[in-house]
């Protein structure tokens, strides 16, 4: 009898795994109320769309890719992570910038946050409209020669769009010189310098 029960349980588990529906990670996951659900993350989540997997307290929340695969699998979804992502960032839909610059196909990755074009603003508006506050979690993108890298760190000060900002990498402890381009977003390297120069030119 015991062997029959164990066999039935094993068969049910196998059937559940076989019925797991394949899903695709959204290109720019966002949520609107701080409750991050599988529907916010994946296309094709179906009846599991309302399953909550995290709570966003700041401008963004970062998930480990392996963690998301496990949470999706528990709800009958199968995300293969074909691009081999390590982390997935979900942002506040209300603060997510709408102007997005195209990313070279060779550098694009499923779920990778897009590079946001800095919007020229008058000098007074830039001073008043702070987009990053000290201790905010900030995602910094670095692009050079078609290669794009991103890290998430903590803001060392306040900044408006186009202003320089020091961001501390929580893993290495090093400080990165970046330029704010939106809520919780910054650019480093040549792209950051270009964004700052564009903002300064517009303010003249």
From TrEMBL:
The UniProt record lists the keyword Signal: yes
PANTHER family hit by this protein: FLAGELLA BASAL BODY P-RING FORMATION PROTEIN FLGA
Name by which UniProt lists this protein: Flagella basal body P-ring formation protein FlgA SAF domain-containing protein
InterPro entries tied to this protein: Flagellar_FlgA, SAF_FlgA
Keywords carried by this UniProt record: Signal
The Flagella basal body P-ring formation protein FlgA SAF domain, residue ranges: 128-184
Signal peptide, first to last residue: 1-20
Cross-referenced Pfam families: ChapFlgA
């Amino acid at each position: 009898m015991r062997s029959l029960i164990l066999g039935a349980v094993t068969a049910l588990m196998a059937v559940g795994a076989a019925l797991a529906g394949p899903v695709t990670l959204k290109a720019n996951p966002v949520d609107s109320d701080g409750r991050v659900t599988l529907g916010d993350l994946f296309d094709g989540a179906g009846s599991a769309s309302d399953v909550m997997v995290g709570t966003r307290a700041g401008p963004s929340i970062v998930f480990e890719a392996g963690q998301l695969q496990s949470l999706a699998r528990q709800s009958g979804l199968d995300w293969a992570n074909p691009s081999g992502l390590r982390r997935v960032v979900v942002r506040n839909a209300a603060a997510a910038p709408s102007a997005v610059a195209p990313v070279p196909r060779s550098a694009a990755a499923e779920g990778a946050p897009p590079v946001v074009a800095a919007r020229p603003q008058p000098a007074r508006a830039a001073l008043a409209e702070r987009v990053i506050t000290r201790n905010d979690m900030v995602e910094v993108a670095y692009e050079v020669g078609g290669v794009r890298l991103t890290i998430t760190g903590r803001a060392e000060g306040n900044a408006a769009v186009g202003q320089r900002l020091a961001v501390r990498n929580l893993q290495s402890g090093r400080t990165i010189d970046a330029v704010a381009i939106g809520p919780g977003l910054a650019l480093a390297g040549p792209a950051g310098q270009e964004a700052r120069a564009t903002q300064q030119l517009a303010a003249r």
